[in-house]
Amino acid sequence: MGFDEARKGRGLYTAEVVRAGRITPNMVRVTVGGPDMGRLPRQGFDHWFRLFLPRLDGPTDFSHIPDHFGAGSYMKYMAQTKSETRPVLRNYTVRNHRPEAGELDIDFVAHGDIGEAGPWAQQAQPGEKIVILDQGCGFDLAGDGDFYLLVGDESALPAILGILRDMPRNAEGLAIIEVPESADVQDAEGPKGVEVRWIARNDHATAAGALALKELSGFTPPDPEILTAYIAGERTLATEGRRHLVREGVGKHRITFSGYWRAD
Ligand SMILES: Cc1cc2nc3c(=O)[nH]c(=O)nc-3n(C[C@H](O)[C@H](O)[C@H](O)COP(=O)(O)OP(=O)(O)OC[C@H]3O[C@@H](n4cnc5c(N)ncnc54)[C@H](O)[C@@H]3O)c2cc1C
Q1: Where are the domains of the chain?
Q2: CA nearest ligand 1 atom 41, residue
Q3: Which of the chain's ends, N or C, has fewer CB atoms near its CB within 10 Å?
Q4: Residue 76 has pLDDT above 70, yes or no
Q5: CB–CB of 128/17 below 8 Å?
Q6: Contact between 233 and 262 (Cβ < 8 Å)
Q7: What's the gap in Å between 239 CA and the centre of ligand 1?
Q8: Helix (H, G, I), strand (E, B) or coil at 151
Q9: Which CATH code for domain 12-136?
Q10: Helix axes 235-247, 210-217, angle to 10 degrees
């Protein structure tokens, strides 16, 4: 199982910022809308996409964006476009999708003024154009009777809350979600049988993902044969978390893991 093998989406969708604002101390929600947001298939779970954003340093040329993302199409796109006006490109998750209203929410970690997407979200204005290249889901439901282990930091909060929302109501498992502050905790609409364990760093000295990794490292799967794991967030959390589970006897095919970002 893994991001490469899971069900895929494709196709380009344009939208405009409808509203934007901070929903918790370290998370900004940007709602985008337009007819294409009614057309985008609603896949739920950790549905993610490549997001093309306006540049912060000048005009942006949104032409030539490919409708699927392969090595060839990406190289062609780079050759056809000028680096000075090329949109910013990052990966994000559907937080909520309301096709009937033609709206989609994207939750951005507000990680300061370094980078492009995080800073853009903190000052996004209604009417700004964005383009979405659909990528589908990384998460795949396992067979009945599996125990789900979902682990992530704040960048994977939209993905894990989406998975919890869309899992079968009789699912069982544990979700470990690390956030910067206690006030970053959000409502989780998970099945009753899935415990949601929030961990807040509440200080700037602890590296993002470190507390979730510590919690995961203390987890011994009662039965590795029926464990389905999903680990996403800072790269060390994803790779070391997977290593721990493999050492505990969980088959690699039972672990979906993705380094969403990399701490410097
Ligand atoms: C499939 C997928 C889905 C994702 N979904 C989401 C999502 O829904 N919401 C979300 O916020 N992120 C999500 N991410 C992660 C997001 O793509 C990265 O955090 C991205 O690097 C942000 O781009 P940027 O321009 O803000 O920063 P960059 O220009 O990439 O990096 C600039 C600096 O910021 C640091 N940085 C980047 N991200 C973070 C962070 N989260 N916390 C602290 N420091 C950071 C980097 O280490 C670097 O020093 C997802 C990633 C993947 C692969």
Answers
A1: 12-136, 147-261
A2: 155
A3: C
A4: yes
A5: yes
A6: no
A7: 17
A8: strand
A9: 2.40.30.10
A10: 0
